[in-house]
# Entry
Amino acid sequence: MTPASPSEGAYDRIRLRQLRRGLARPAGIDRRSLLRLAAAASVAAPLLPAAAPSAHAVTAPGGVVKPLPPELFTVRGTNAETNFAALRDTGLLTPADRFFVRNHTGTPRVDASDWKLTVWGDGLTGGPVDFSYEALRALPSVSRTAFVECAGNGRSFFASQQGEQVSGTAWTLGAIGTARWRGVRLAEVLRRAGIGANAVDVLPRGLDAEVVSDGVPLGRVRRPLPVAKALDDVLLAYEMNGEPLPPDHGHPVRLIVPSWVGIANIKWVGDIEVSAEPLLTPWNTGMYRLFGPGHPPEGSAPLSRQTLKSAFELTPGATFAAHRRHLLTGRSWSGGAPVRAVDVSTDGGVRWRPARLRDEPRPGSWVRWSADWVPRAPGPGVLLARATDRSGRTQPETTAWNTQGYLFDAVVRHPVTVV
Ligand SMILES: Nc1nc2c(c(=O)[nH]1)N[C@H]1C(S)=C(S)[C@@H](COP(=O)(O)O)O[C@H]1N2
Ligand SMILES: [Mo]
# Structure
């Protein structure tokens, strides 16, 4: 099991009880008022709180701003998956030009000079507080290395390895990247804004366009964070690998929520509501919970920590010359605890041997590893890599199905050809 700190576990249990009893407040939307508002053809205005900033955001045509050459990325709708083979010549950090992009709508162009962050809500001791970009950059800064990984990373293997249908973007393993982020601790900003002892949820919201799903407007991308996590290790980041955040990754400011599912890392953040009541949005109710056998009808607790995975830095179907020595490389990561060991199999999973770890395992990051291989028999083959983290969790052979295909953690079979 993924270990969760007591505060995270307690939060999930409380939310679930509150949801069942109807005590949690829908933030900015509920289905009934949505339909009413939609009928009145005036959705946007009533959904904006008085204190929300105006969005200086124009959505880029085509969704993603940076180039997406096919050797680096596989484009999937409004998203771009990093090809793992393109990481082989990179270090621990993923360069911005090959970092995956997950956009619910499209990358907005936000100008730092007329951007501000508004912190507001009944969980503050006073009224709304604005922070300009300059003001934020003048606060004490911290840096940390962290991966951002989509909750649906690996989703396509439910179908290809387990014969199970799931909904959502059919990622292979490249909906992850690791960067060095620099910014201000969210705790610092919340304290300066006057967070009260009654605050329970913190709701960052993006400046990208409103999301419309099956004709239903869901409002702008936003997902509540429990106060315990918000005050712990979360960053309001303005730099990625030593450069200002690029447009596609949240310019000018995004959240970095270490070890948690990608959706927590809200990009292009424009305002943060601090609430004295638990909040519900489509991003912690219908989406980003587990639905299916073994889960209650309203779904699991909202997803928080990421799971455990491994990937080879190889194209699917890569060819290897028989009787030569090859260096296999890859990466493993876990949201639960640092990766402790990685085993590889070059014979389809019959025999396993340890890979050499090339990085000191750290929480919220990945480790690079390598193993030598001298293939003998020409023909098709399957490579496997299986990680174990310091909590003792090892990647299983299969992942329990859930309707939206989240948190795939099973060992992936990587097809190759020996020639
Ligand atoms: N405002 C906003 N923030 C967002 C998203 C989005 O569409 N809009 N996508 C989320 C999801 S689902 C993921 S996985 C990560 C992806 O971050 P990246 O595009 O920088 O890789 O951003 C998250 N933050
Ligand atoms: Mo995601």
Notes: The CA atoms of residues 234 and 257 lie 5 Å apart. The radius of gyration is 22 Å.
